[in-house]
């Protein structure tokens, strides 16, 4: 190895011996590239490489060499999104570091106080920590931050893509920045990820305003085998139910479970349905099949609502080599917890994103010579007289096909770095006050919102407005010398363990009809009275949205077809929607579809031609007008807001916008679009004046209205793309 490798000989001698003893035949491409960059310890580095391409070692081998060359007293801070990943890395690093006499310190909620005390006494080696534990450290040991991190030589951020575009991501940026401010120096940051759609954007996230060195390992990877099986849920003609009767169980989950049972038994696999409820459904069906056939159970559930014991049991079943095991899971097993190689990945329904699909598929085909296998399952309802546009166009099957075709082309969504996440700014303000014991408005603005900081999108005037509002909410108070301290309410929050998480646990709205709770619904789009939603297989009209009580009051919608689109599993990118349209416009067969899936695509294409959708964008559905934009959710939501501003009930829905006609005509709606095309772009205070449920993040409730709208727009609206479509569509109509 030493003769062929330009990087191997740069590593510390004991690390070289460890590599020999492990039987490595060669360094991976990512490691060859990263070692000379990280070794110097004078720049930020971002490493993008496939799952199992040796990214962790690409960071740690040179970082440890650097640390040892400086006398071994340095500190590498490894930050992970998951406690389970920390436990994994501890197992991987501890053997190597023991030979180097470098201590490794795991630090999260399940780690004993004695381990943490020993680290605080020594303060060198490798610290493995979550953002929440790092937050707690800064809040509770504020006066010691500079001493604790005095010898820090690197921040290593694992699964970087999992942080980008989220509240936790902003929190992490802020925590690293605050430590650097306490030390009065920059600490080199190393970001690791398997899924980065745009290295430049990701680099700007790793250090706002920075340009890290890039390692992009495009190793050939394994062969990819894909099969998508189509299923059709039979049409059930029923009389009107009184609402108390249980819905009939659908037929297709049983059929899909039977196929999974047949093809997965005897090997390790991951299966991703698109919700926790579906995880439970498929696990139950598969467990029942094992029981009926009197064979050992091989199917295990894994999602965030399950207890730690059940999740650990599933992970252990996947790791042990004696018996085969398949996990039915949500994205909890999408990240790099070491569960060993899996033979195949099952995806039921379209995945949340192409990037997510790539991450999931990275679990399969890890062994040399083995292909990565993707088994897709797509379900469509049989077409009846009341079929909606989504059903007619077979959009779920089209979306899965579009995402797979983009995956094959190695395209995936660019990181969403534009979000202001002002909710997290509120948390970081309160945390910084806890760390320092109090600070002036000027000091806090310079720390969090000045040039090169995580919250640069806020002006001084807006910051003052925010502080005044936080004062009214009793989150902060100002003493006579101008120092900001925690207010009565702020102190309560900061002293509770839940404060350290920048995100709220997933909250769902209760759906209530006639005083009876029907269930709960996650809400990730604008809701308005008059709008129709699909819930528990029925169509409901929204009467009222109570944001304080997180409740949607509904009544049954009589007559008419169901809503055209009922939302997806994630926020869909414009590129995916446009690929769906391209597939509808084409006539070529997709080789990775089975006969039923091909038939579904053919039906979608027939409807596309029959409805004249090659040229028409406004589809009259009687009570509603559908504007088919084929844009992503952020642009569609912007178009919906432009129409809401003009008095319409409009909803971003699937590949378009659904507008309730009420007493207006199609012409009235299209005229309103024409007005929007020529008018000046409205300020957010006007555009979002009538829009409810803008508060989506943990501390959004504490923001003044204007800043809440600004924060919401930065995350959920693409006004430029939406307006560009409106102008193009109305110009074509005039022609």
Q: Residue share in helices? A: 40-55%
In round numbers, the mean pLDDT is 88
Number of distinct beta strands: 25
Quaternary state reads single chain
Unreliable parts: 238-247
Strand content range? 15-25%
CATH architecture of the domain at 8-216: 3-Layer(aba) Sandwich
Radius of gyration using CA atoms only: 27 Å
CATH level-3 fold name of the domain at 8-216: Rossmann fold
Structural class: alpha/beta
Can you give a write-up of this model?
The relative contact order is 0.09. A hairpin with a 4-residue loop joins strand 20 (538-546) and strand 21. The termini are far apart. Helix 16 (395-408) packs across helix 21. This protein is globular. It has 27 helices and 25 strands. Among the domains are: 8-216, Rossmann fold (3-Layer(aba) Sandwich), CATH 3.40.50; 224-239 and 247-382, Rossmann fold (3-Layer(aba) Sandwich); 422-480. The longest helix has 18 residues, at 83-100. A seven-stranded parallel β-sheet has the order 3-4-2-5-6-1-7, sandwiched between helices. By secondary structure, it is of the alpha/beta class. The chain is 41% helix and 17% strand.
Topology summary:
Elements: H1 13-21, H2 29-39, E1 45-48, H3 55-69, E2 75-79, H4 83-100, E3 104-107, H5 113-122, E4 125-129, H6 131-140, H7 145-148, E5 152-157, H8 160-163, H9 167-183, E6 189-193, H10 199-206, E7 213-216, E8 224-233, H11 252-264, E9 269-272, H12 276-292, E10 299-302, H13 308-319, E11 326-329, E12 344-348, H14 354-361, E13 372-381, H15 389-393, H16 395-408, H17 422-436, E14 439-440, H18 441-448, H19 460-472, E15 476-478, E16 483-486, H20 488-494, E17 509-513, E18 516-521, E19 532-535, E20 538-546, E21 551-556, H21 574-585, H22 595-610, E22 618-620, E23 624-628, H23 633-645, E24 649-653, E25 656-660, H24 666-678, H25 684-687, H26 705-716, H27 719-734
Parallel strand pairs: 1-6, 1-7, 2-4, 2-5, 3-4, 5-6, 8-13, 9-11, 9-12, 10-11, 12-13, 17-21
Antiparallel strand pairs: 14-16, 15-16, 17-18, 19-20, 20-21, 22-23, 23-25, 24-25
Helix pairs in contact: 2-3, 6-9, 6-17, 9-17, 11-12, 14-16, 16-21, 23-27, 24-27
